């Protein structure tokens, strides 16, 4: 699994320096991949281009990530993990903060969840949309499962009086990368309008008893 | 474009009988395709199997539908056209009926739209889900455009006080075949619960002013 083994068959015997090299290569590859993504989009991020721009062998890259899908998956994991940290333990209004009354806080956090997600999609949308096209992960990815659970907890705290499970799917579907990018790019609905639409949806389904 | 030309190079010269044959073949192929779909699902509907079970040449089928995608598209068009007829001009509660007061009727029709769509998905879900995977039609298919327009008209009639365009996308996303089938099959949420969840969503976003 050490990407340098192949490059340095006669290199130092101890694992220390080789591991440090591998870590450095790994960080270099991810940095380079992020830059290519910014410049050329998901389509432009090929293994050939990544090898050329990082100055490493293609073999190294494939051993490191398994495949282009593996590379995209790792980049996605970083983005989703960071987002999760923010909504699960970060500062308000997205995160719980400290000491706030739970019942007052849940609607604000629901609104912030969608607003921050739409903001994230306006920056990383192509990559996040790609994740919805990787295999059958569209609805069963770990990131989505965490998002659904988060929404269910907040809906319960907000006193939502309906089927929380169904409502969580509806809310998450409204924030799908594929949908948001279609609304924004093909239908020219601004991210601001999409965020305001989300806020209104949350207010209506939590504030109004049927 | 006449499917019989190839089968009957020395057949009757007039277009009449050949057209009648073509129409008959067309109906036979669609009937057979529907039966295969019921028995074996979308995956089981191959051009080979269709040719064998309809007793026609594969060439005839390809000339008629262009490709397997073309065949699926035509089957989808039939289903969507029928659904459109029902919600645009059919009997209430899905359709407008005759003489009812428009403002009282819109919420009922919104509820019926989702309930009937979920009912349709419980029967034709695999085929409708396939349409979401044909090319880039997931959001831009004509059937979807008609559905969005319909929802917008009803939201306006129901006095929805927010961004109608954004709300129509949110509502339609909640009824996507891919999502509904995932909720039902992978998450074991019954179609009844999904239909009730839709009704609550409609009631909350139309009855509640923010």
TrEMBL record, chains A, B:
The keyword DNA-binding applies. GO terms for molecular function: DNA-binding transcription factor activity; transcription cis-regulatory region binding. Residues 46-65 bind DNA. It comes from the Bacteria. Residues 1-21 are annotated as: Disordered. PROSITE patterns: HTH_TETR_2. Keywords: DNA-binding. Residues 23-83 form the HTH tetR-type domain. This is TetR/AcrR family transcriptional regulator. It comes from Subtercola vilae.
